[in-house]
Amino acid sequence: MVDSLRSTSARTSGPTRGAITPPASRSLPRLIGLGRLGLLLAGSAWVVFLFGLIFGTFGDTHWGNTRWALEATGYAIIVTLMLMSTSAYLVARGGYLHRVGRRALTPRAELEAYFLDHQPTATVLIPSYREEPRVILQTMMSAALQEFPSKRVVLLIDDPANPTEPHNIELLEGARRVPLEIQRILANPRRRFEESRDRTAALIAEGRPEPSPDDLVRLSEDFAHAAAWHEQLAERWQCYDHTDEFFVEHVLREQSVSLQKVANALVEAVASHQTMSWRRYRQLLQRLVSIFSVELSSFERKSFPVLNHEPNKAMNLNSYLGLMGSSYVTHETAEGTLLYRCGTNDAAATMHAPRTDYVVTLDADSVLLPEYCLRIVHLMEQPEHAKVGVAQTPYSSYPDAPSRVERMAGATTDLQYMLHVGMCHYDAAFWVGANAVLRMDAIEELRRVEGHGQLVARFLADRTPIEDTESTLDLTMRGWSIFNYPARLAYSCSPPDFGALTIQRQRWSNGGLVILPKLAAHLRARRQRDEKVRSAEVLLRANYLASIAWTTAGLLVLLAYPFTNTVLLALVIVMSLPYFLVMSSDLHHLGYRRLDVLRIYGFNLIMLPVNASGVLQSLQQLVTGSKSVFRRTPKISSRTVAPASFVILAWIIVVGSALMMILNFHDHRNLSATFAAINLVLAAASVVSLIGIRHSITDVWVAIRGFIFVPVATTTTATEEPSDTWAGILFDGRDEKPRPAQSRIFEDPEDLLGESVSA
Questions:
Q1: Which of 250-264, 334-348, 668-682 is modeled with the greatest confidence?
Q2: Alpha helices for 55-165 (secondary structure H)
Q3: Is 748 within a domain?
Q4: 754 in a structural domain
Q5: What's the confidence (pLDDT) of residue 722?
Q6: Contact 340/748 with Cβ under 8 angstroms?
Q7: Do 320 and 301 contact (CB within 8 A), yes or no?
Q8: Contact call for residues 598 and 584 (beta carbons, < 8 A)
Q9: The dihedral of CA 361, 367, 370, 376: what is its sign?
Q10: 208 lies in some domain
Q11: Which of 433, 467, 542, 612 has the smallest set of CB atoms within 10 Å of its CB?
Q12: How far is CA 208 from the centre of its chain?
């Protein structure tokens, strides 16, 4: 059923909130009308702006004045691009409101009936790099407890295979223990419910026409046991921060309440002398078996020299995707562990990576609500969605974040959730990589092998740090679509401090311009398939890829250049007001304060240098062809030191706004001075609250100290076994380590040892 979903719990009072509910249906017409009015006002102001520009600001001809002409032309370009971004926001927002207004809830019985007769398989892949074990445990547990009948969960550990620092050793060993710990926790309830399933099958085989009251009581006891298990785990779960509290409340306790309701309903049915069919009985029992039945494992690509070790999330995923569909025998050598393909049922196989119908990607700091896989895979299984290659619920921010940075970053994330859901209304959705359900048939069409004999093919694009965005266009060019499910079923962390935030946002702003040429190829492919391409889709996709470049450049120009034409500036402000007023309304319905729109504006001001840095990296890649280094967002309990350049530039924006205010007041440009004063107040407030004066001094001092006191390089003795030993010679045959680009997985051990040796 299209747009079906389960509503999450209501928000709490104040600026912090729980899982967010969609706007009430009675308020939708007002919200949609507000957006349309904003679009009309912004467009009208733009028309008046161009009219005044062309005719010399309402009567006066200034085109002979070179400065005025340059200002006017620059203004026209900036304002038009800004209008595109404003229009894209309002259009996508309207799409979101239309979708949430028409969605319907698929009944549990319909879902349970479908998955009793159909058994699609899914593998959840969780890429992880030096994550805290407690964070991995939270994420893997949410994946393991998915109400999905046939699932595997694989932790893709990307830590170096042989760390030397004690802390890194502890992280690696802790990550390896997590799958085993979860398997142990789930063992007893899984055994109980599988025994109940087998007992039920035996009763049906005996020819019983329908379940007896005792059978219903037994089923009720099973549901009550599952509910109590979830509640007991919630009571024992150690809550270190707000993410743990969210997991306990919205994954464990909400599921406990849901299961207990079924148990109570079964008791009421017995008391009312009612029964059900064996088919319905099996559907309910299958839910319990599905919750606790999961195969958990971990995989470390860096333990295998034949696999690609490029340091980014896309290649971590690609390495395992390339192995799926086969079983393998491992062989230890001096150079590392080798993999040999073997038969699926080969008794010697030590590693199995079966092909599944779907692959679920999930970041290691994210959490899925229990029905995520059930509802999204059910949607993708419907005939009308047979060409959906990726479906997901764009992730939301965890509520009740303790730090100002995380709350502000979370607010922008929740606004982006609305826009991504709305873009799907116009067939302009993009895959957002924190979580997604990938159809394996679609992903296999992206397979490409680079280099002779290279086993690990590239499925997901890794030219840029935003692999999900480029992979979106790779899929759509092949006729697949992206579906953003309009429900909040996945939550992910926002950076807790300014240093971590700069790394994340710099990565996000890098790559859009590199990918932009593919948009033309996407549009050509759609037209060749005789698919209708709406102007809204072109606007939304172009804005998504390039707006961060033009808005960053435009804001920097507006901040730094003292424009003399106050009439045109007034029109620019009028044009911007609908955008901020509508965003204020959106923040209110998301559970934030309306005035948070001003804080977001100040937040965006101090993030301008970060975004500009990412855009410049994209331009550098376009010119040189060299890929940018993939930098992971730090997930540590201590504060991440911010680059001194971003801290200094943020303060320069504050000082520059003050100078512009003084300069404009001196020249009697009161409107421009007022604009500069607003920038000064909001930027200064953001710097103080989000970076901090003390932390600013600390971060700059750390950079100065690192520049002055250069550590002396020390010579270390290599500890690894030289390649000219007998094992190294058998492995490679020369005094040189193997190159990953030329490596492959051997089909048979004789490929390594040779016929004469094996004989």
A1: 250-264
A2: 56-59, 66-102, 108-117, 133-144
A3: yes
A4: yes
A5: 43
A6: yes
A7: yes
A8: no
A9: negative
A10: no
A11: 542
A12: 49
Residue 542 amino acid letter: A
Measured CA to CA, the distance from residue 330 to residue 673 in angstroms comes to 70
Residue 476 · residue 526 · CB < 8 Å = yes
Q: How far apart, in Å, are the Cα atoms of 392 and each of 141, 359, 372, 375, 437?
A: 19, 12, 9, 10, 6
292 or 78: whose pLDDT is higher?
292
Query: Amino acid letter at 74?
Result: G
Q: Where are the beta strands (DSSP E) in 129-286?
A: 151-157
What is the mean predicted confidence (pLDDT) over 544-557? 92
pLDDT at 729 over 60: no
Helix (H, G, I), strand (E, B) or coil at 530: coil
Do β-strands 490-492 and 366-368 pair in parallel, antiparallel, or remain unpaired?
A: antiparallel
- Whether residue 739 lies inside any domain: the answer is yes
599 within 8 A of 45, measured Cβ to Cβ: no
**Residue 319: which of 455, 220, 219, 436 has the closest Cα?**
455
- Predicted local confidence at residue 726, as pLDDT: 44
Tokens 């855009």 label which residue? 615
Q: Which of 3-7, 305-309, 514-518, 749-753 tops mean pLDDT? A: 514-518
Task: Tell me the C-alpha distance between 551 and 81, whole Å.
Answer: 7
Cα–Cα distance measured from residue 123 to residue 143, given in angstroms and rounded to the nearest whole number: 10
pLDDT of residue 635: 65
Per-residue pLDDT, 636: 63
Q: What are phi and psi of 587, to 5 degrees?
A: -60, -40
> How confident is the model over 164-204, as pLDDT tens digits?
899 999 999 999 999 999 999 999 999 999 999 999 999 99
User: Can you give the residue range of the structural domain that contains 752?
Assistant: 726-758
Going by pLDDT thresholds of 50, 70 and 90, the confidence category of residue 592 is very high
Which pTM value belongs to this model? 0.88
Q: How many domains does the chain have?
A: 1
Distance (Å, whole) CA 691 – CA 341: 52
Cα 350 versus chain centre, distance: 32
The rounded percent of the chain whose pLDDT value lies above 70 is: 86
| Cα 609 off chain centre by | 23
Residue-by-residue DSSP string for 542-589: HHHHHHHHHHHHHHHHHHHS----HHHHHHHHHHHHHHHHHHHHHHHH
* Rounded CA separation 755/740 (Å): 25
Q: Which two tokens stand for residue 355?
A: 């092909």
Residue 271 contacts by C-beta under 8 Å, 6 or more apart in sequence?
none
Give the pLDDT mean for 345-362: 91
- For position 612, what pLDDT does the model report? 95
